[in-house]
Amino acid sequence: MPHDTAPPTAGTTAHAGRPIRILLADDHALVRRGVRLILDQEPDLDVVAEAGDGAEAIEMARAHDIDLAVLDIAMPRLTGLQAARELTALKPGLRILMLTMHDNEQYFFQALKAGAGGYVLKSVADRDLVAACRAAMRDEPFLYPGAVTALIRNYLDRARHGEETPDQILTPREEEVLKLVAEGHSSKEIADLLFISVKTVQRHRANLLQKLGLRDRLELTRYAIRAGLIEP
């Protein structure tokens, strides 16, 4: 897929005549600095807010007028995928790009379901990210070559078997609880982070075990790793 890195034409920004305002979220400060350097070199791109995890990204989105969120997938508290779902509901007009080190079909399909309009690999961010930002503001999808292959293969597999991708097994809240349990947080800590009662946390945890057919925290953690909620 060609990558157009030429300056944008009129109408590619949210409002003609001003830069695209970007929220950048990654839990590694060095990565944020590097990505910001790439973006701030462009006259039509302006990083106006940064976040160190998915929950902070949502706070920053509430506090700043932004056009585009660039989210790392693997972050503490809330992943980029979880944050993307929240941001899509919070600001329906917001464009979202996922930035990841993982060339992973599962993450890619989850990113699309979460509302992302593009998927950029960190290894080639210096080449692809600027073009991806501009494409997002034109409401055009931006996919790296491996993602295109994955899309085609997935479509053909589903067509061959006459089946659609099943809906997500867990609710967004159950997914939040699962991630925090797998990260080692206590029920009290989870309750404080999600602003719910300890009893509600325990109920979610019991529901998770029953729904997934698992026995304990260790098995929940393994499931969370397979589901891409935390890194191994």
Notes on the structure:
This protein has 232 residues and is an alpha/beta fold. The protein has 10 helices and 6 strands, in the order βαβαβαβαβαβααααα. The chain has a 6-stranded parallel β-sheet with strand order 2-1-3-4-5-6, with helices on both faces. Helix 2 runs parallel beside helix 3, helix 3 runs parallel beside helix 4 and helix 7 packs across helix 9.
Query: What is the H/E order?
Result: EHEHEHEHEHEHHHHH
The chain-level mean pLDDT equals: 82
Number of helices: 10
Strand composition percent: 5-15%
Major sheet characteristics:
6 strands, parallel
Provide the helix percentage. Answer: 40-55%
Radius of gyration: 18 Å
Number of strands: 6
Q: Structural class, from secondary structure content? A: alpha/beta
Shape: globular
Give the CA-CA distance, first to last residue.
32 Å
The largest sheet has its strands arranged as: 2-1-3-4-5-6
Indicate the low-confidence ranges by residue numbers: 1-14
